[in-house]
Specification:
By secondary structure, this protein is an alpha+beta fold. It has one domain. The protein has two helices and ten strands.
Amino acid sequence: MISIIKDIHEDSSLVKLFQELHDSLPKGTATLERTDNNDGTIIRLVPSNPSAAQFGAHTEYAGFIDVFFGSGTTFELENRDDNKLLDLVRRLGLAVISGKCEERFGLLGVRGQIHLDGERGYRCTHYFYPHLFPKTVHYEAYSHGTTKSSL
């Protein structure tokens, strides 16, 4: 069941974080979608700019969050301190919203990377996603008013 979130009455810290990210954007820049099933909660920001990357997260257990962006690059994050984990998800989300991410589609796989200011980038490679013509997609910011320095 996928629903567009209009008003959240949920105690989940991850859902609140995504609501804050959504509320910080100019109106109409992105929609917030949520799916609840027996595998946990999936929540994502879908930008109205088709050249920007979606950003989302999946959580089923405390201390574990799968973060994804673009065509499906996924990072598995684990931390015993939920506050540090949520802070990392926030920073990754702000970077994707700002257009600081890319995916390289190769012959046998895809490598996605999110660039964080002053730190190493978060990079992940998934194999067995073949593409006949390799390419790199540099995603844009969610809106023209959302610059890399404004977030």
